[in-house]
C-alpha cells in the first residue's frame, strides 16, 4: 500500500434528527458540495416516510440500512498469475457505506419522480426486503457464496 491511510474525519450530527448516520447519508447524497439540497432531499424523504409508515422515520431508515447492509463481499486478489474473487467479511463503517451507496444508486436509477420520493420508495422497499438495493446485496452475497472455494486466500487480501 502506497502512502498513508486517510485520516478519519470528525463528522457533526445532522441538525434536525441529531443523528450521525443521517448526517453521513446526507453527505453521500450531496453532489458538488450542495449540502442544503441534499438535506432537503433527505428531510422531504423522511416526511414521506412518516406519512406512509407507522414507525418514526429515523427508525424506518435505520431498519432499511440494516436490511441492505452486506455481511460479505468479494475483493479481487492476484495469486500466481490468476485473479480470484475472494470473499471477505464486511466490517464496521463499510457496511453502512455500501448500504448508503446502494440505496442512493437504486433511487437515482428510477425515473419520473422527485429524488425524495424515489428515496422514500426505495427505503420502504428495503424494509420489506425487496427493491433494487436488496437485489444488489443479494447479488454480492451470491457472488461471495459462489467463490467460497477461494476463501483461503482471504488472509492475503489487503484491506
What does this protein look like?
With 159 residues, the protein is mainly α. It has helices spanning 20-29, 35-52, 57-68, 93-109, 115-127, 132-146, and strands at 72-79, 82-89. It has a two-stranded antiparallel ribbon with strand order 1-2. Helix 4 crosses helix 5 (115-127). The longest helix has 18 residues, at 35-52. The mean pLDDT is 91.
Looking at this protein, list some descriptive labels.
159 residues, mainly alpha, Ribosomal Protein S7, two-stranded antiparallel sheet, 6 helices
Quick overview:
This protein has 159 residues and is mainly alpha-helical. It has helices at 20-29, 35-52, 57-68, 93-109, 115-127, 132-146, and strands at residues 72-79, 82-89.
Write the layout of secondary structure elements.
Blueprint: H1 20-29, H2 35-52, H3 57-68, E1 72-79, E2 82-89, H4 93-109, H5 115-127, H6 132-146
Helix pairs in contact: 1-2, 1-4, 2-3, 2-5, 3-4, 3-5, 4-5, 4-6
Give start-end ranges of low-pLDDT stretches. none
Q: Quickly count the domains.
A: 1
Strand order of the largest sheet: 1-2
Mind describing the biggest β-sheet? 2 strands, antiparallel
Assembly context of the chains: single chain
Secondary structure class reads mainly alpha
- How far apart lie the N and C ends? 10 Å
Number of strands: 2
Count of helices?
Answer: 6
Shape: globular
CATH superfamily: Ribosomal protein S7/S5
Amino acid at each position: 500500500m502506497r502512502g498513508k491511510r486517510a485520516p478519519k474525519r470528525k463528522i457533526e450530527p445532522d441538525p434536525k434528527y441529531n443523528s450521525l448516520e443521517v448526517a453521513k447519508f446526507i453527505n453521500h447524497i450531496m453532489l458538488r458540495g450542495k449540502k442544503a439540497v441534499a438535506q432537503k432531499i433527505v428531510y422531504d424523504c423522511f416526511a414521506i416516510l412518516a406519512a406512509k409508515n407507522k414507525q418514526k422515520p429515523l427508525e424506518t431508515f435505520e431498519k432499511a440500512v440494516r436490511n441492505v447492509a452486506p455481511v460479505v463481499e468479494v475483493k479481487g486478489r492476484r495469486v500466481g498469475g490468476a485473479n480470484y474473487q475472494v470473499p471477505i467479511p464486511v466490517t464496521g463503517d463499510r457496511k453502512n457505506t455500501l448500504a448508503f451507496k446502494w440505496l442512493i444508486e437504486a433511487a437515482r436509477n428510477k425515473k419520473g419522480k422527485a429524488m425524495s420520493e424515489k428515496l422514500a420508495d426505495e427505503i420502504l422497499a428495503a424494509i420489506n426486503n425487496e427493491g433494487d438495493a436488496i437485489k444488489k446485496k443479494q447479488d454480492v452475497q451470491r457472488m461471495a457464496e459462489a467463490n467460497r472455494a477461494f476463501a483461503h486466500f482471504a488472509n492475503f487480501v489487503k484491506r
